[in-house]
Amino acid sequence: xxxxxxxxxxxxxxxxxxxxxxxxxxxxxxxxxxxxxxxxxxxxxxxxxxxxxxxxxxxxxxxxxxxxxxxxxxxxxxxxxxxxxxxxxxxxxxxxxxxxxxxxxxxxxxxxxxxxxxxxxxxxxxxxxxxxxxxxxxxxxxxxxxxxxxxxxxxxxxxxxxxxxxxxxxxxxxxxxxxxxxxxxxxxxxxxxxxxxxxxxxxxxxxxxxxxxxxxxxxxxxxxxxxxxxxxxxxxxxxxxxxx
Length: 244
Hints:
The chain is of the alpha/beta class. It has a single domain (7-237), classed as NAD(P)-binding Rossmann-like Domain (Rossmann fold). It has helices at residues 16-27, 40-52, 67-81, 104-132, 153-173, 195-204, 213-226, and strands at 7-10, 31-36, 57-61, 86-89, 135-142, 177-184, 234-237. Strands 3-2-1-4-5-6-7 form a seven-stranded parallel β-sheet, with helices on both faces. The protein is globular.
């Protein structure tokens, strides 16, 4: 798919990986619907940066625990830009929670934001893409969906489900829409990680490096613009961490 002139909705676009992905898509000529929840300032800053570079962008707020909010964000994107060609499910919740301390709220929040929201976003966006005759959906997953982290059980269950969801959506939305997943390894460790923990992550990769948001953005561009033949696939982007 040629991205110039297309429209991309990126969830969690204001910060970290979502921001890098949005900027990369905008750099290829796509208009950006920048979703945010609590990062309004960052989303508005992203939009202004894209506009200064000559692109088109608009921020949209939505609580991803709410299906009606998700539908409203997709509808607002369509109303503002007239079409929707790419959905990147980047927004996620990720925090440490020992097994014995997991609450119902922890479970519900992780499954809602990390799994339910990508499904409903894909359902609403996918319907518009099928009407147009083409579209791309990229889910940002985690290698923990293949080999779970300790003390992140709800998160890893949701990310495992996201890999399965990617395959199921690829079948449901074929042939018009290609749906793929990127299973991330150590890219931008959480802010609460101590230096020693970060160094352990680095040492555990085969490349002995941490990934960058730009690495993720390049992978998204490949799945959106580099090929129309991949669908239902999960690309490991982990510096060889799973093998290590």
